[in-house]
Amino acid sequence: MAMTDEPDKEARKAPEPDFAAQVGAKAARKLKARRHATPGVWFGLGMMGLIGWSVVVPTLLGAAIGFWLDKHSPGQYSWTLALLMAGLTLGCLNAWHWVSKEDQAMRDEQEDSDE
């Protein structure tokens, strides 16, 4: 009889997680997931479009101004090519700025949610 009592005592010693605590933890995880939802496909497409336009607009603007300058004051060098490259450079820097800003915002949000 002593042998059968020992396993029961050991089973009683191990603390069992409270059912209400488990349900509360799951509910808290679900609420946190709803508050910090991962961006969907549309967010990614929108960001891609934003970055694309931030490169395209200065590039085309530089090309248009360069074309106008070439028509009104022709010279040895092409204003179109020079301003096209300047616009492309400016657009790429603009896109880099947007991407780094979004990356920093995501990192800050992740650090806030970890706390």
From TrEMBL:
Signal peptide: none
Keyword Transit peptide: no
UniProt keyword annotation of Transmembrane helix present: yes
InterPro entries with a match to the protein in the record: ATPase_gene1, ATPase_put
Listed transmembrane segments: 40-65, 77-99
Keywords per UniProt: Membrane, Transmembrane, Transmembrane helix
Name of this protein: ATP synthase protein I
